[in-house]
Amino acid sequence: MSTAKTSVCSPVGTSCGIARGMTGRLGATAGIRRQRGPQVSCYDRSEVEVPAPIGAGRQAVFAPLDDGSGRSEAVVRRLGSAIALGLIADGEQLPAEAELATSLGVATVTLREALSDLRRRGLVETRRGRAGGSFVRLSEPALSALSRSRVRELGSADLRELGEFHAAVAGTAARLAAERASGHEIGRLSATLDRFEQAPTTAGRRRVEGRYFIEVAAAAQSVRLTRQEIELQSELAELQLFPSHTAGWAKVALERYRAVVDAIGTRDGALARRLTEEWIGTRTLGMIEVHLALMAGADPAQQVDGVPDVLEGGTLG
Amino acid sequence: MTGVVAGPGPFAVAAESLVERVFGAVDAVKARLLDVLTTGPTHREHLQSNDLAELRPGLIEVLADHREIVVGMGMIVAPGLLPNERRRLEWWQYAPGREQPSALQVDLNPDSLGFYDYDAAEWFSVPRRSGRRHIVGPYVDAHGTDRYLLTFTAPVEVDGTFLGVIGADVPVSRFERRLLGTWGESAVEVTIINTHGRVVMSNCAHALSGDLVSDIDPDGSTVRVDLPDVPWHVRVVDRSAGLPIPPV
């Protein structure tokens, strides 16, 4: 759905914003070959001329970087968050270097630098020969390290503002969903949370959680909130693989989300909103604590693997 | 001023005629598909990817013929039916700012944040289960067209095999605009409501598209009529009595 998105939502300063001029760039992704089994749709291009299935989220991955810096770090972040969200599938082949550089709007040399960084991190594998190219590898430790460096890089005020903005969008969506979600939609939300509970990996949990937020916005019957939430999820993916989806956090998050869906079910919009805002606030605070610890040179694994300080501090009552 | 309150009849008739216009497009695409399947160069027992490519010109033609109301049309194939593609959409739409229809591209990877989970979508699952046509919406088509839509679908079954659904998307705002124009000025509040209790559209500001409304009619001032073969009913309340439709 490239074009509708393109014309309505132009990216303003988001790191993984929705594409400008994406329609002309579909070719960049059309050539991607899927490497996985039957669960991934695979187009035989000799049979049909339609480009490979993409979706708005995927299109945004290959859109020009809009921070204007042209830095290889921005490319690494963009592709890293796309891998974390499954927008580029594990094992998928990236477009050829020249093609990818053009679609991202960076110099080929910058792209090479980024690919070499991703290779070093274990997120991309390059194979030589006729069937060669750059292939994506979903490595959780590598993604975790990547988001750790992003949490470190951003300022605490940046992190706070991002959290506040997400709370505004998701909180309003939860309130409106309590007024407008049908019984069917509420059932879907519960099913999504079941999948959140059962997700076997951190990255899997992260993706299901993103879908939960997007579904709440859709249940609010708001196209604008839904689009905004999709954009936010792409941006948050750079940060939140760590620490908020480790087991200790996930358990508390699940409780909170179940309570929100219950409030939506009882049509208590004020409660649904408050619970959503409070939880996002708690998590943002946790992220800022990690940021500060990283800046102070602490080993972040201490804060990450156990139940986080912020949860033990009684803020959740 | 004594108002003779019109019943839902005329409003329902206008709605029905617009609904049938859209289903007319769906039926036309369905007929084209059956043509492709039965008159192809070789007889095929199963739907193949080629059939969808062959359907494309006819599909685009029907879409163009209904452009005043329909924004997108296509076929969504039953998962697992095609040998090489677990899931497949052949969907064309008029994207904003473009004269020619373009193919809708969605993410069909179940492990993706942006997965377009059509098996679970009501516009797919209900016709598959019931074998009958269906209208879904208003709903936000997240991960798909990103529009606020009514989606009209009908199942396609050949020799007892469910092949998928054929459907048409109508933007909620467009449906509302066309029908409000037809309804004209009215002394009564008219609301079209779907089976979820959700307002499809109305001519009053306190029950807008997407709102949920209650079925309670405490003083019996509401007159309702079901639309034939459509999961909607039309409700009429005498505005002069000052009885808004109560919220949930």
Topology pattern of chain B, helix = H, strand = E? HHEEEHEEEHEEEE
Strand order of the largest sheet of chain A: 1-2
Q: How much strand content do the residues of chain A show?
A: under 5%
Strand content of chain B: 25-35%
* Main sheet: strands, sense, barrel of chain B: 6 strands, antiparallel
Mean pLDDT of chain A: 78
Q: From the alpha-carbon coordinates, what is the Rg of chain A to the nearest angstrom?
A: 20 Å
Taking all residues together, what is the mean pLDDT of chain B? 88
Contiguous runs where pLDDT drops below 50 for at least 5 residues of chain B? 1-5
Apparent shape of chain B: elongated
Largest interface, and how many residues on either side? A-B, 59 and 52 residues
**Class by SSE composition of chain B:** alpha+beta
Count of helices of chain B? 4
Summarize the structure.
The complex is a heterodimer of chains A (317) and B (248). By secondary structure, chain A is mostly helical.
Description:
The complex is a heterodimer of chains A (317) and B (248). Chain A has 317 residues and is mainly alpha-helical. Chain A is built from 15 helices and two strands. In chain A, a hairpin with a 5-residue loop joins strand 1 and strand 2. In chain A, helix 5 crosses helix 6, helix 9 packs antiparallel against helix 10 and helix 12 packs antiparallel against helix 13. The radius of gyration of chain A is 20 Å and the shape is globular. Chain A starts with a helix and ends in a 5-residue tail after the last helix. The relative contact order of chain A is 0.11. Chain B is built from four helices and ten strands. In chain B, a hairpin with a 2-residue loop joins strand 5 and strand 6. Chain B is elongated and about 60 Å long. The N terminus of chain B is likely disordered. At the A-B interface, helix 1, helix 3, helix 9, helix 10 and helix 11 of A face helix 2, strand 2, strand 3 and strand 4 of B.
